[in-house]
């Protein structure tokens, strides 16, 4: 899940699934047609006027003719009076503002009604049942006159694209038992209310469904109005933009309420205690509602009717001991809890033993929390358990053999914890219904899967996901007996040898194959067919041969293997739906084929670290969906075409470093509207760095042009970037001064939300940037947002270091070495409290080293060598750890760690040892004062900023 945290509104498919499921609980029986009943003449005429207001392109109501209206489509009459009692015109089609063809035939017209609702409905005074759901009334308002249809007991206008204000006149329907105004999530229209006071008139209401209706204007009082509906059996306020979840201390009159759904709201509060005091509840759903805090205490045996509890996708905290104990009091009840879903919260602590007393439990989903400790032994007594999901927690210990006694288990998900020990066939001896299993540990070596070579499982899996679990060295032979496999994930399992032929034979049924991070060798089959939109990841193995053509694949990774030969020019014919392709770090040769651009669905392409040659993007055509492109570390040549941004209009990440690309960089190359990361380092580009335009500057966050032949001055346009936080222009021929406007670089003054690879790509690879941040080249992946860096080293820049640079408060790396800079070290440099690397070496900088620099406690890498600095070296805090190479080449410097003492050094003559010591003590006292002032705030601000972002990164990456 990404975030694994769900977004504020669940996906439309889940939206539909939840609402259709709840509709099946309608307590009002549907109409039963009777074609033998005589038709009331007045009501027959009313039906025809009603039909005249409708638009019926499919002729669905073509039967509405002749004298006997009681056998017309969707009409039901009472016997023997002939009065119309029900109109049921719910469409079986998918009718919405968007076109989704249910039939490929061009002549097919969906059975969808639109138009207006005629007041002729008022002439059917005995009408009790009106259902116009699943049509498309294109945003017309719910008619006011419906409130005058006094006999109505069932009103269903759901998924029919009504829009606008819900009339308060509906509150006059005192006989109404069922009201469903669910909004179609695919419609561009919506329904809303100004208040809910009219609900008090619906005294007979059993079912209220306002799914997707905007109730934000009634958020302060919605509960007071709903609480008056004492006959309610079902209440669904899913996705209603409610922001308040009120506490209520008085006893509630909900004696019949069995189903409640408050999901997809924004309560930002804890769950009120009254929710768990409704003893009649059978199903409670409050998912993705921004709930916080601990769960309220539950009185033991107070919810013995509750069968389903869904609290997933919130921010609930604390342990679950209380809820487990409260619900376990019903262990002798025949209607005790069956489903407990607490997925994606912040629950912690050990799983409580009372969970094992919920003996009717069928589904236990606790994934993506921070539960710790082992699996409680009591869980193996849940004999009815079908789904056990403990994935993505912090649990540890061994996996109990008793899991093998859970004979009803179909899904066992223990992925991403810190399990240890061995898993053997004893863990599965009675799991005859198992169809899906996932298992992994924090790191390889803690957990092993050990079964006999001739083991024949009792189950037939559809999905297996093992990672960081030793299964090798042989490929598990027992898998060939699993005839229904569609998902096979065996990553980092120490499997070696060749992939068995039986696996290639079943490729048409495979939707996901992941064997990455093993030692698998051998040639790949040149042609295969996989399941439609399948994902194949064979990265980091020892596979050989030419690039294979495997049809049906949507995502494909051969990263870090031994593939050779040319990339096939006909790849687009076999892989037309390919969206993700990673063949980095192989041995592919030949020219970069223009046919790659015929892969029009491609969004991610990484062919870095091969031996590809030829002109870059020569004869390429537009790739409208390409977001990520990495062709670095090849032998590509020629210039970058000026039309590059029109070739890749969606480009967000471009890396062409370490090639032989030459020529001038066109300004058009920098005008890709979404380009965030541009790495053209270590090529042969020359001429001035082109001018940027402000819209493009707002997008760029990492700009790397190092080791080229760029000339001219520092582009002052870069000062105005809002998000630029990595700027590497080192090792070029830039001249002139560093402009004072660098103080305006907003991206260096915070840890912003810089560009991250989209979640859709991260299951394979996260993208990387090589940066020289700590005196050596380092590769950055997840930590890129935490790097704020300016590297202008190895140019011919002159003038003084601008004082304004000290206002870049989040700057972590400043490298200005090997230039012609002069003047003094800025006196306010200690304001850069987060600076970790400072390299000013091999310049013409003079003056003293500011004593206050001793307060820069984050400064780990310092180089001031080969300048014209003089005076004593500070001797406090981290300055005591630097060796002499940091200061060498400055004849005027004295003091440790250099060998020349300040007491005998030029400029210090006449000072005896006592005088020098006294002056040094005064300096140290001043340094101490500066240290406590600047570090006290700087350290804590830096510490919590970094740690806070690292914590937040967990949700970004998972």
TrEMBL record:
Native source species: Trapa natans (Water chestnut)
Keywords noted in UniProt: Cell membrane, Glycoprotein, Leucine-rich repeat, Membrane, Receptor, Repeat, Signal, Transmembrane, Transmembrane helix
UniProt xrefs under SMART domains: LRR_TYP
Topology class, membrane: Single-pass type I membrane protein
Signal peptide segment: 1-24
Main location: membrane
Cited InterPro entries: Leu-rich_rpt, Leu-rich_rpt_typical-subtyp, LRR_dom_sf, LRR_N_plant-typ, RLP23-like
Entry's family note: Belongs to the RLP family.
Keyword Cytoplasm listed: no
GO CC term (a single one): plasma membrane
Organism domain of life: Eukaryota
Domain Leucine-rich repeat-containing N-terminal plant-type: 41-78
Compartments reported by the entry: Cell membrane
Membrane-spanning intervals of the chain: 929-952
Protein name as it appears in the record: Leucine-rich repeat-containing N-terminal plant-type domain-containing protein
């Amino acid at each position: 899940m990404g975030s694994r945290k769900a977004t504020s509104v669940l996906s439309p498919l889940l939206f539909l699934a939840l609402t259709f499921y709840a509709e099946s609980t309608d307590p009002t029986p549907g109409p039963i047609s009777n074609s033998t009943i005589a038709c009331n003449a007045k009501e027959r005429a009313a039906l025809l006027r009603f039909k005249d207001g409708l638009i019926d392109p499919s002729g669905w109501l073509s039967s509405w003719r002749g004298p006997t209206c009681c056998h017309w489509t969707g009409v039901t009459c009472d016997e023997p009076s002939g009065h119309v009692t029900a109109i049921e015109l719910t469409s079986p089609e998918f009718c919405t503002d968007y076109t989704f063809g249910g039939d490929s035939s061009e002549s097919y017209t969906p059975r969808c009604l639109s138009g207006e609702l005629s007041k002729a409905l008022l002439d059917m005074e005995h009408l009790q049942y009106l259902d116009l759901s699943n049509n498309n009334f294109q945003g017309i308002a719910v008619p006011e006159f419906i409130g005058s249809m006094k006999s109505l007991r069932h009103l269903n206008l759901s998924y029919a694209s009504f829009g606008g204000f819900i009339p308060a006149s509906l509150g006059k329907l005192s006989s109404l038992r069922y009201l469903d105004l669910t909004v179609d999530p695919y419609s561009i229209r919506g329904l809303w209310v100004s208040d809910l006071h009219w609900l008090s008139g619906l005294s007979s209401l059993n079912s209220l469904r306002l799914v997707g209706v905007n109730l934000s204007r009634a958020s302060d009082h919605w509960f007071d109005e709903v609480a008056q509906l004492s006959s309610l059996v079902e209440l669904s306020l899913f996705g209603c933009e409610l922001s308040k979840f009120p506490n209520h201390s008085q006893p509630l009159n909900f004696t019949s309420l069995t189903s409640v759904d408050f999901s997809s709201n924004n309560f930002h509060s804890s769950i009120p205690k009254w929710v768990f005091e409704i003893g009649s509840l059978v199903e409670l759903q409050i998912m993705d509602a921004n709930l916080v805090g601990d769960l309220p205490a539950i009185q033991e045996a107070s919810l013995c009717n509750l069968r389903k509890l869904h609290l997933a996708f919130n921010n609930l905290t604390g342990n679950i001991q209380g809820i487990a104990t409260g619900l376990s009091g019903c262990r002798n009840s025949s209607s005790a809890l069956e489903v407990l879903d607490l997925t994606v919260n912040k629950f912690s602590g050990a799983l409580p033993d009372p969970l094992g007393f919920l003996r009717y439990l069928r589904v236990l989903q606790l994934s993506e929390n921070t539960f710790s400790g082992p699996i409680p032994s009591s869980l193996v007594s849940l004999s009815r358990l079908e789904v056990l999901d403990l994935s993505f927690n912090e649990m540890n210990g061994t996996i109990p053999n008793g899991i093998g006694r859970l004979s009803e288990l179909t899904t066992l998900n223990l992925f991403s914890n810190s399990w240890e020990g061995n898993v053997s066939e004893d863990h599965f001896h009675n799991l005859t219904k198992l169809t899906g299993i996932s298992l992994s540990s924090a790191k390889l070596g803690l957990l092993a899967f050990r079964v006999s070579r001739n083991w024949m499982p009792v189950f037939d899996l559809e999905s297996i996901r093992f990672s960081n679990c030793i299964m090798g060295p042989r490929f598990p032979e027992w898998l060939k007996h699993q005839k229904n496999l569609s998902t096979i994930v065996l990553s980092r399992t120490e499997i070696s040898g060749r992939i068995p032929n039986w696996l290639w034979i079943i490729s048409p049924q495979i939707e996901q194959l992941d064997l990455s991070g093993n030692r698998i060798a051998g040639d790949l089959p040149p042609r295969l067919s996989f399941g439609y939109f399948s994902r194949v990841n064979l990265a980091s193995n020892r596979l050989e041969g030419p690039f294979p053509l495997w049809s049906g694949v949507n995502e494909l990774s051969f990263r870090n293997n031994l593939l050779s030969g040319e990339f096939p020019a006909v790849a687009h014919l076999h892989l037309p739906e390919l969206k993700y392709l990673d063949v980095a770090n192989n041995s592919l040769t030949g020219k970069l084929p223009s046919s790659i651009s015929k892969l029009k669905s491609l969004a991610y392409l990484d062919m870095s670290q091969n031996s590809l040659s030829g002109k870059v993007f020569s004869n390429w055509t537009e790739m409208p969906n390409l977001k990520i492109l990495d062709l670095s570390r090849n032998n590509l040549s020629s210039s970058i075409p000026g039309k590059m941004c029109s070739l890749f209009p969606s480009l967000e990440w471009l890396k062409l470093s370490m090639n032989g690309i030459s020529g001038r960089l066109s300004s058009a190359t920098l005008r890709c509207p979404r380009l965030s990361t541009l790495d053209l380092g270590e090529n042969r580009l020359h001429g001035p760095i082109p001018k940027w335009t402000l819209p493009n500057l707002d997008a760029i966050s990492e700009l790397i042009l190092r080791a080229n032949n760029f000339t001219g001055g520092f582009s002052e346009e870069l000062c105005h970037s809002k998000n630029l936080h990595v700027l590497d222009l080192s090792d070029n021929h830039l001249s002139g001064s560093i402009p004072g406007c660098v103080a305006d670089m907003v991206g260096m003054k915070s840890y912003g939300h810089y560009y991250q690879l989209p979640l859709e790509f991260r299951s394979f690879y996260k993208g990387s940037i090589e940066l020289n941040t700590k005196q050596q080249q380092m590769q950055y992946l997840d930590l890129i947002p935490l790097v704020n860096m300016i590297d202008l080293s190895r140019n011919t820049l002159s003038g003084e270091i601008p004082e304004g640079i000290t206002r870049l408060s989040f700057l972590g790396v400043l490298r200005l070495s090997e230039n012609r800079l002069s003047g003094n070290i800025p006196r306010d440099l200690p304001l850069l409290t987060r600076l970790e690397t400072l390299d000013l070496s091999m310049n013409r900088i003079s003056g003293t080293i500011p004593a206050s620099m001793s307060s820069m406690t984050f400064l780990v890498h310092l180089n001031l060598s080969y300048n014209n600095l003089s005076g004593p070296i500070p001797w406090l805090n981290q300055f005591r750890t630097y060796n002499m190479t940091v200061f060498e080449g400055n004849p005027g410097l004295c003091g440790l760690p250099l060998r020349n003492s300040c007491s005998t050094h030029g400029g210090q003559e006449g000072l005896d040892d006592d005088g020098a010591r006294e002056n040094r003590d005064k300096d140290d006292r001043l340094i101490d004062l500066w240290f406590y002032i600047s570090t006290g705030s700087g350290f804590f601000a830096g510490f919590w900023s970094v740690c806070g972002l690292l914590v937040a990164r967990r949700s970004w990456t998972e």
